[in-house]
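Handoff note, outgoing to incoming analyst
You'll be picking up this chain. Sequence as last confirmed:
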Amino acid sequence: MFRRFIIFGLFLICFSFNLKSEFFKAEFQLGATGAGLINTDENSLHIFFAGYDSDFDGELNTDLGEEPASWYFFKLNPPNNFETQHILDFDGFIQFPFRPARKGNLLYVPLENKIIICDLESKTILDNNFLEISASALSIFDNFLFISVRYDYDYDYMIDDNFVIVYELQTKRFLDTLEAYDFVQQTLPVMWGNNFYLFVLNEGNFGSDDSKLQIFKYENMRLNEIQVIDIGSGGNYLAQYENIIAIVSSGSNKIHFFDLNTFGIYKSFDIPGEPWNGPREIIFTGNDNIRKEAFGEFIVSTYDNKIYSHKNQEITLLDEFDYKIESLAFLGPNLCALSSFDADYNSAKSLYILFNPFTSIQKNSSFDLKIYPNPTSGILQISNDENNIIKVIELYDSKGLFIEKIQNDINAKNILINLNKFQLSNGLYILKIISDNQIVNQPFILIK
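Most recent structure output, in case you need it:
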């Protein structure tokens, strides 16, 4: 295992309590084609990249610039120190979109033509060939694995009949096959009251208004289809929060909310954007008031490089990025957004962290200066407005504790600071920059 950092692009915008939240944002380049984010606890995040297969032949060819699927680990050490670890590269390409199944610390991951098992605690692959099957998505409940199938990699074609296989983990038996509609996308097992349901999301044909949500109920010793709901175009993602099932329709640019109590869709939200560049995934802030105050009740990623927030009964733009956003997760109080492609559908590598403005130090002056690179590996350059004479620069940690004073006797437009001599750990720091008539607190991130 080794560490690899190619880091760029952090900028800061002043935060105002009277305006929409704006964030201290860091961007990191890691693997190829961001696929999914998996939390193991509030401050730990596993990051999976699908890899880049330029000719779609399932074989890694580095001469063509191809990159393998990969697995990274992010850990936040509060308040704002963090570490990143490259765990391993896979021997194949992860199925995209990333729809794994999780049971405790075990993650069942679909590759092109097999399912493998990863252990999130030990950060190892427990079984590199659990099942030889081309699964488009997986989900799990108790002892049952639900395998969505819509593609046959052995013959390189989309199959005519989509289905969901019910597999019993303990006895290693295939128990049932449930018929699905075109391009089955995801399953979501739900236990509500005394009943077990399986929600099956079908993407439908590209450009057609034929996405469907199937609902199966366990009764009489088997899963029976009890309801089919038309949800528009491009059914893409399911998520549950308490009694609510969120249904993402990317082609229709809508989020539908299904209520388990009334057993029907009770509300739909329109997400701005062009058709087929619409919403991708949704994440709820839940009962965390600090996250909710900053990011709203829920956040939606989109394929036109944006994330939107639902706050005060309105859908508003939260932030915009350079790449299409595939997956969302929280890291402590902060929001992470993982990118998949650029505008031309070339593989992207970026992980963004939006630091919660209620827990991060914010810039508090209009002092005309820039510090770069930010994040930095140890050397900071300050580009100063020549009309401001910097007298003193002081270094503080993210808690506001004083570390070092740097005296400047030269009125220079550019000032170089070597942080390596201070033996700092990775994380968020603040430069307090004092001029003739102004003081500014300028945050920056150090990663070595």
